[in-house]
Design goal:
The chain is mostly helical. The chain has six helices and three strands, in the order ααβααββαα.
Length: 151
Amino acid sequence: MASPQERHVIFRRYLDAVGLHGMAGAEAAGLHATEWYALSLISLDGALTSGELATRTGLTTGATTRLIDRLERAGYVRRAADPSDRRKVVVEPVPDALARIDQVVTPGRRKIADVLARYTPEQLDLLFDYFTHAAPAYREATEEIRKHTRG
């Protein structure tokens, strides 16, 4: 069994590998890391207003507008009228363009599928319980960091 220090190192290496994979995926898609993250949000959650996207990415509204412009020029997203309030504009994914992203991430998905295949259904339940609870914890920690650095 690994000691607490060894577990810390193992976990840090895991997080670093996930981060590096995200950066490599962004680069392969011709995107910056923040654009990659924003595109992930839009593809997972569907159409978002620019304000929602600004809040979720931690960018200013001006920086978010420029980010949307870049994603739109690259063909990954489009602006559309909000179906519930025609005065608002939402940013939605372009489905055909997301197929290009799938090509970029397929090797990683295959490798992780191979890793997950090593586990029993009960172990997978435990892993996915961790993912379910860790993701919001990291988002909250991110907000704490942002609040601290913004003063």
